[in-house]
Amino acid sequence: MSDLLHRPRRLRRTDNLRALVRETRLAPEDFILPLFACPGERVRREITSMPGVHNLSVDEIAKEAAGAYDLGVKGVILFGLPEAKDEVASGAYHKNGIVQQAVRAIRKSASDLVIMTDTCLCEYTSHGHCGVVRDGGVINDDTLELLARTAVSQAESGADVVGPSAMMDGQVGVIREALDDAGFDQVAIMAYAVKYASAFYGPFREAADSAPAFGDRRAYQMDAANAREALREAELDEAEGADFLMVKPATVYLDILKTLREQFELPLAAYHVSGEYAMIKAAAQNGWIDEQRVMMETLTSIKRAGADIILTYYAREAVRTLTG
Q: Is 195 a catalytic residue?
């Protein structure tokens, strides 16, 4: 007769037993789908390094968002590819900018969808940096004014949440003040509080045509080696009025995500970024992994580490898996 008293395998024996004691559960409302708006009509251009992800004209992005909502995705975040770029990113805050047009179109096609906007300048500047450039450097305080104008313009178009991602010091506070002064005190701010200077953004830069024309972004995005600094960044954004905090990228910074979850009460988002998505896609296309299982295991790890909200290009597929 066995003298084993403790047998953890008892609760792993069947699908239903495993489900009964599962500690971390994904749900359709956990996911935000990133979408890329571009000029033109009936444009649906697949991004080479991100199979299944497209640059979409305004008419197509409205259909895409409505279809995602019908499937069960509760929110989208919008990025824009303007017709023209300049040194002061005027397309970011123009009332008829590409993201502003997309917000209005999506609001008509899926009125209850949560619409978030990326509030940054890199997609709209001719030099590809996230702010005003002078003498080869990004000027923090001059950039703040343009970020505030962008956030107000996005709110005017109907955005529910703006997402400052430029990693400029003080950006959340300046945007909060600008939104409140313009009468948009109910528009929330999802702060890209902890955004690392990561090599995992490569495919996104193809999608958004936002690679820097010179240098890189390590002077304003965080050093990958730093963990304590993440707490300071998050503390500052919380103090300035952020409604959400975000960690970006997600899977290679799960330790940071867990640390923030333990220290802050604000809702916590994590961005499963383009390079993380592309690696799964590439391995799956080579037959090396089971894409669906790896996708769900990856997203579960992000939720387990503490994320309340996951921004992922797999949002539709994840919802289908959960509801199918």
A: yes
Per the structure, how many domains does the chain have? 1
pLDDT tens-digit readout, 213-229: 777 888 999 999 999 99
Domain that holds residue 286: 25-323
Query: What pLDDT, on the 0 to 100 scale, is given for residue 1?
Result: 58
**Using H for helix, E for strand and C for coil, what is the string for the chain?**
CCCCCCCHHHHHCCHHHHHHCCCCCCCHHHEEEEEEEECCCCCEEECCCCCCCEEEEHHHHHHHHHHHHHHCCCEEEEEECCCCCECCCHHHHCCCCHHHHHHHHHHHHCCCCEEEEEECCCCCECCCCCCEEECCEEEHHHHHHHHHHHHHHHHHHCCCEEEECCCCCCHHHHHHHHHHHCCCCCCEEEEEEEEECCHHHHHHHHHHCCCCCCCCCCCCCECCCCCHHHHHHHHHHHHHCCCEEEEECCHHHHHHHHHHHHHCCCCEEEEECHHHHHHHHHHHHCCCCCHHHHHHHHHHHHHHHCCCEEEECCHHHHHHHHHC
- From 85, 248, 281, 303, the catalytic residue: 248
124-142: per-residue pLDDT in tens?
999 989 999 998 899 999 9
Tell me, yes or no, whether 10 lies in a domain: no
pLDDT of residue 221: 94
Task: Quick: pLDDT tens for 169-214.
Answer: 999 999 999 999 999 999 999 999 999 999 999 898 787 777 787 7
Q: What is the CATH number of the domain that holds 213?
A: 3.20.20.70
- Among the listed residues 74, 95, 108, 195, the single catalytic one is 195
